[in-house]
Amino acid sequence: MSERTVLSVAELSARVKEIFVSAGCSERQAGAVARVIVAGERDGCKSHGIYRIEGCLRTIGAGKVVPDAVPAVISDESAIVRVHANGGFANAAFELGLPVLAERTRALGMAAMVVNNCTHFSALWPEVEAVAELGLAALAMCPSYATVAPTGGRKPLLGTNPMAFGWPRENDHPYVFDFATSMVARGEIELHRRAGKALPEGWALDQNGEPTTDPEAALAGAMLPFGGHKGSAISTMIELLAGAMIGDLMSPEALAFLGTTTLSPHHGELIIAFDPVRFSGQRRGNPFIQAESFFEAIAGQGARLPSQRRFRARSQSLAQGIALSAAEMAQLQRLLQV
Ligand code: NDP
Ligand code: PYC
Fold it and tell me: Is 291 left (phi over 0), alpha (psi -120 to 50) or beta?
């Protein structure tokens, strides 16, 4: 096995933040971006870990994200909490809006955070997890840029459009799932390309609309939605709710804005939060107790809950540090000097 260097979560966080500060980001933007990237690396989610740094820096260099943007919250006491990211990263905008979203959700039973005008490159689980840690359920979604063909089509139109859900649990990590509505995240295809590995069949089409297992051809062609027509429809719903409905870009417009898929996409995001106790009206007792019985039934069949792998990886990283390859260490060093 090749040589590996172990960094603590704090050490890696400091290095990643320094890279973004030296690239011109404000403390707020650099901190928020570093937190989500290091969380990905810590939790064994390589497709949204440190591999994403280069793309973010390219996006800053291309002038497509405002590295010192100051997000602003507009809350009019309704259920809609709008956060203007003002051209910055979505992560800083989310962090600013979270306490307001929680307050509105507790007051009204449900509320939604709309993030507008942001660069969004990250996984969604840190966000639904943060809402769930406040005792609320959450559903988050966003478009991406046009890289996925609708089922029955052959050309990119949809984004990889992720959707995540979080449910709070009193004595355990929250129940969280988070996935792209394409067969896999685009980052996964890129990681296959870098490793020189063929893709499994059914993930992508080449530029002629023919099935391919070549990552290079897939990146130039179109990815495919998960679950055939069902994933295609869910992905379309995300374009509608987290694109058109929130007054922001849909995936084809996001691609036109950048003109390339080598930069991080620019669009908006929708995060809906629910207060389960208020919704239940306590008609059948405490909804969290009902939920626990259901989770037990899942585990009782030998199935695992989504995020269990991730939480195990997190425990290991917190206890033993994060092991990075020599190439990854060299990359961190190089990016600090860019
Ligand atoms: P995966 O297919 O790797 O995982 C999807 C989810 O399924 C995870 O919650 C995972 O939990 C769970 N899971 C996997 N295997 C099982 C199993 N056997 N039993 C139960 N649960 C399981 O994710 P994707 O490749 O689709 O997406 C990866 C990331 O990419 C996501 O975090 C997403 O937000 C991000 N993304 C971001 C985009 C953006 O525009 N910002 C666009 C597209 C994707 P576990 O982690 O524990 O394995
Ligand atoms: O991995 O599909 C992806 C992705 C797109 C934007 C951010 N991540």
Answer: alpha
